[in-house]
Amino acid sequence: MQIPELQLNGLTHQQFLDEYWQKKPCLIRQGLPGLQFPLSAEEIAGLACEEDVPARILQETGGDAGWTVQHGPFSDEDFANLSPSHWTLLVTDLEKHIPELQALVEPFRFIPDWRIDDLMISYAVDQGSVGPHWDEYDVFLIQVDGKREWRVDTKPYTDADLRPNPDLKILSRFNAAQSWVLEPGDILYLPPMVAHYGIALGECMTCSVGFRAPAYDDMLASLSEELLCKPDIRQRYSDPDLETRDNPGQIEQFEIQQVRKKLETLMQLDDASFARWFGQYVTEPSMDWVMPSEEILGSEELHGILDAESQLVRSTASRMAWTDSHGSLLFFADAESSALPHSLQELIEYLCRSYQYDTQTLQQLMGNEESAFNLLCDLLNRGILEITHDDQD
């Protein structure tokens, strides 16, 4: 899939981040000029009928609830029973099922990969929508076929403004401050918590690149699990200098402070350990998309693969990242971490930057380092990297 170069109203990536990112909406006319989307409505519907594809159909019904939602997998009969208007099909994690569509995420990788979530598509018939709502994350809405009107209101809303619908968070009242009609190639960027309402003007398809915004309570839960693995965590309270007191029901302040200080000490992670936990946390896949290789490869087999000039590609369902933490090069792949020598930094950067790898470049970056071959063997055996051949391109 060929994707045009991203146009940001004449702004550089950094100027866009400075002026709009997490600050205010931005309409980008012909942000991807001449965009040709490769999937038809029938192919999108076919995907939604598959067992492992997350899909939903939202129908506008009127009444207090306003909309209903059905979850896939769907059947041909499900689609045949839908009305001719006022419904929308949503399919998430699209790039994980159709790797070719990772190309539509690529223009937005000036945002760090660990912040990118997935590519979703919305196919809607005339007047189809998911109702006025807000998202808790940034999103780029890309019109890929037909026309959709977007109404936006930057005024803050709360849960008190929602319809009495237990399945969907849809606003009961919505007063648009701005509205635009988007055509193929147009993009609308929306920061978190900005209320918006998209309505199809005839049949249309809209793709969205959504971003991860990890919740701090989820991070605390994950960090707690990490802390519980510390070797010194299984200590017990002790008070060898205990003294009698008048009332046995009293808890002395020094006892409270003693426990507090000890817990604060146990809750500390050194910088390297914290970086390792964070990298593992943000590279954890949303689902078990990647399947391990059926054949276990070793260094000799890998040498043969590279010499045969087979192409290595990265699963679009995997997450990879790296960081240089206090002199330690940490590499992360699908929630697992490796401490690697700095001599492999260029190789790690290449692996994280790309999804298709040139074998000659790989060989050059790997040199003769055993740790490099061990790393690639591990990624291949875990299914994070896959082998293709030129005749499959």
Describe this structure in words.
The mean pLDDT is 93. The longest helix is centred in the middle third of the chain and has 14 residues. 25% of the residues lie in helices and 24% in strands. It folds into three domains: 199 residues, Sandwich (Jelly Rolls), CATH 2.60.120; 37 residues, no CATH class; 94 residues, 50S ribosomal protein L16 arginine hydroxylase, Chain A, Domain 2 (Malonyl-Coenzyme A Acyl Carrier Protein, domain 2, 3-Layer(aba) Sandwich). The protein is α+β, with helices and mostly antiparallel strands and 393 residues long. It is globular. The strands form four sheets. The protein has an eight-stranded antiparallel β-sheet. A three-stranded antiparallel β-sheet has the order 8-7-10, with no helix packed on it. A three-stranded antiparallel β-sheet has the order 16-12-17.
For the CA atoms, what is the radius of gyration? Answer: 26 Å
CATH level 1 name of the largest domain: Mainly Beta
**Separation of the first and last Cα atoms:** 12 Å
Morphology: globular
Number of strands: 17
Helix content: 25-40%
CATH topology title of the largest domain: Jelly Rolls
Mean pLDDT equals: 93
How would a textbook summarize the main sheet?
8 strands, antiparallel
| CATH superfamily descriptor of the largest domain | Cupin
Q: Number of helical segments?
A: 11
Instruction: Give me the secondary-structure category.
Output: alpha+beta
Unreliable segments of 5+ consecutive residues? none
| Strand percentage | 15-25%
Counted up, domains total 3
The string of secondary-structure elements, in order, is HEHEEHEHEEEEEEEHHHHEEEEHEHHE
Strand order of the largest sheet: 1-9-6-11-5-4-2-3
CATH architecture field of the largest domain: Sandwich
